[in-house]
Queue: 2 jobs
Job 1
Amino acid sequence: MKHPAPVRAAFRASFAVLAVTLFCVPPAALAQDALKDEVKERLGRVEQSLEDWDVPGAKRELSEVEPLVPAELEPLKYYQGRVAFEEGRYDDAVSLLEGANIEDKPGSYLRLAKDTRDITRRHQRAESEHFIFFYPNGKEEVLVPYALETLESIHRAMAEDLGWTPPNGKIRVEVVNNARELSKVSTLTEKQIRTTGTIAICKFNKLMVTSPKAVAQGYDWQDTLAHEYIHLVISQSSRNTVPIWLHEGMAKFLESRWRGKGGMAMTPSTLALLGKRVKADTLIPFEKMHPSIALLPTAEDAAVAFAEVFYAIDYVHQTKGSAGLRTIIHELKGGQKDRKAVEAATGMPFALFEKTWLAHIKKQPFPQELLPREERVVLKEDAKGKVKDESEKKGREISFGDFDNVAEVPARRFAHLGELLRERNRVKAAAEEYAKAHKLVGDKYESISNKYALALLELRRLDEAESVLRGSLRVYPGSPSTNVHLGRILIFRKDYPKAKVAYLEALASDPFDPEIHLALTRIHGALGETALASRTRTATVQLTNLKPEQVDHAAQVFLNEEEELSEMNVGATPAAQPQPAQPPAPKPDAGR
């Protein structure tokens, strides 16, 4: 990964200072010119090692230089500061970089070290065998066990697939609160982050991820952790020689390995976009992806290119397995160009590889009936309309703004009328209107599918609701709200293994929903998974106003009543305390 211009300028300035300083050192300190040349050469190796993502190598070279020069030598302090920053010793990094007279300006290592130190100073930490997870003091604590399990799983998978384990101790993973903080701890601007929807970065020998609480609809944070770790493995194992198209192709193809096989991360909406471009014969030729996919003229072109390189890696893996991926990395590390590396891995000329790769793309099962959907992560502060306050109880999930993205006017009108009727407790009539909307657009919109399913749940038509929800998951796999609604049905039926899958899928995108953790407390208890039940009990306590004993009671009675299928108020009132009598709510209508 190349560093920004201000940082590269600092590199050049450091070598200039080195030359002046060494020439000015008295002859007694440097007995001969050869020593000066040796120091300069060794510091050059430190720089190259850091560029190669080889922090242990940089430290070794520094240890050879330190006895040869005065401790106050500015270039020495600069590289000591660089290494301290890469190792997460931010106080040391600031002190050393200040001692090297590095300018404190945006993009400089001194500014990065200061900002990262300040943002992470009060972070909590948790450790596993190979990772240290730093997170803000608050609800992010519920992420810890799931994050560490995900990371350890992808660590094992990459050791198996790519034959690499990071050599420099435990990997730092730092969670930040929002886009502003992600900008400060990286070299990206806030504008770049918001424009691209960047939510995580692998750089500086660590992973940096944004808390799911900053995102309007949540995001696939566990896959994202795995994706960024794969970038780290590729950068280290190749000595930072893999070009971006292969980097992203491998990371996207392999990111699902923490939970199963590779190649499961391609979504139907991205596949639909790719299918549209195949039909129009407007795929991006390989040569136009150089030097960077990010430089293509439109965001759609970039998305298509990323999908194409996903299938390039998919093709290599199908024909040559993980050995093919390792060969590509090995050849690039040895100095080969990307085309030669692919030829070595596949055993065919690159022109033939490109032809068979494009044929492989065109054979994919494109969902032709679907329109492409923008998958850029939207931050809460950038979301259109009102983002639900996390302190609000779910209740019956009445919301009219959910249909704003429905392009088909008749379907939007039917859905809006259905929501109005459901709000007025005319549920059977509401279901009829939702059914009309759903008939027009099928599974195209999560909002219509979920509101239709909620109405069916109120009417106790569970089989129909399940069918609608599973159809929606075919189009939007991993949707937290859809998985939660499906999970309710499965718990009510006491199908605990399937309910567990649904709620864990929801947690992988929306880890701060108390219902998910309460449901899992009941599920783990029913399955005899005592340690896991204890984990989710603790998470429920953290996310609600319930005490541990109240969580146990709430879990025991969770979804025992049919009414809870369509109305959920986890944590709204202490479940173990008797409530004053309330006037009965109107029953769902029997018709219009």
Job 2
Amino acid sequence: MKPTLWLMALCAILVTMSCKKSPSLYGVEQSSKGVANPNGATKFVHPGILLTTQSIDYIKTQLSSSSDPWNTSFAALQSTSWASISYKMQGPTVLITRDQSIIAKDGIDYANIIQNDSYAIFCQGLMWKLTGNNKYADNAINMLNAWSSTLKTITSTGPDVYLCAGFNGFIMANGAELVRDYSGWKAEDLQKCKDMFRNIWYPVIKSIAIPGGANGTWDSDNAKAVMAMGIFLDDQGMFDAAYNYFYSGSGDGTVAHYFLPTGQNQESGRKQGYAQLGLCNFEELCEMGYNQGKPDMWVAKDSVILKAFEYSAKYNLGEDVPFNTAFPEIYGQWVYPSIATDGRGIFRPIYYMAYNHFHNRLGAAMPYTQRVLEQHTPIERQTDGTVTDGTGWGSLLFYHPLAGGLTPVAVGALRWEFDELAGWGGVPWAENSKVAVANGQLEVSGSIGTYVRAYQGSALLDPVTYPYLAVKVTQIPKLKKSTDDWAVQAYWNISGTNHDYRYVSKTDMTLLGTQVYVIKWAPKSGLYDGFPTFPTASATGGIYLDFGDCASGEKAKVDWIRSYKNLADIPNN
């Protein structure tokens, strides 16, 4: 076996075995504080912030064959205003700020303007790379030229100036990197853009650390912006500063300070949105390092970033995770008494990138992260209000299953095996139904009254690709009325309206063997059934298992719930 192949195989084995620390992995100590290229003689890879020529070519290959999740993700990207070929620039402005007092005084929404233009620059550059249509590159460059010629200052009356420069500067640098090799960008204009980053954006976040301290999302955001600018500017000093801060910076936003070995992060008790934003910052730092020859960042601190994604995924899927109330936060100001429930179950578009690295590149198991991708965010989109927090679109940009030869995430395929609750719950307003997991089964009972109902409110339903829903029921409760039967109800959210499609076993289910009940998605009149059409792609909704008005003490038991493309694929036991 060639030495390179042997090393790759060894890496995969080592990471799969619970990611135990190995001083020889990648040739560096995983817990190293390392100094990046102290002699400063490295040639940067371009493009090389979050996307490289190789990754872009891979995406284009998938799109040419209309493969998912890339094809559906690309269609979703195209439908946004930021990726529209007719996007209308909202700036430029002489100053930018997130400070609401300045915005109110001037009557100009500086924060919204720079957020949208920065993200549009990124999306237009991305569209050029993926389609070859020069109009997209022209759009991105026209915006970069306009901002380079106009922007003079980034300001605030408070510390928000760091977030303004960090998040927006990071996204804009990603866009600039994508079009840096476009022949239509004049050399003098490219230099003006570089000067803008060096002289206006960078000085605000140069120290990376936040004066007086802050939650770890703040300085980790600054670190990723400085690293991105360093790559675009071919500035080794900037890159090294961000790399070294990642390991040994003074604030909470370092791999040493932000994570506990369990995967809990410094903001797990703040809000789940912030805790996931921290993960976003760290994975983007690691991916930039990986693209520039620093794979040690991904596996730092005994692969704690893998553990952190699994911790976040598990908790937001509805499961319990350990929480240390005495987090060793270095400033002693941002310690939280309990894990945050605010935002629980709402998933930021961040999970593909980490999954791609640890699972596809290194072969590590990430079962909770995979469930998030399969059941909640198979198509990662970016939405208004968070567009400069991270690039998003992981299902398009950061999913290369062939790199590891592993099974791709099944977009929209439901898989509930019930070794744990996985987000299923009882229905309190239905006579306090209760659910539990025992012996690999979902058990449903009614603690008050006799209705037995279970509910999953964040199912990812795709009735076009996976038209068959199969439920293995090993125990059906006895109903009070012999004329009643149990039912499955599914809700799609279409244009903000719930639509109820109801199914009952006697008329709409096919029984395979003695326990597997199969439904083929088809609309049937019911509550909120205002439209006769299904979503043309995967959509988030809810599923009820309604076992009805049962005799006292009755209980339902379910082995699994799955969706399939073909009836012939479904097991009969």
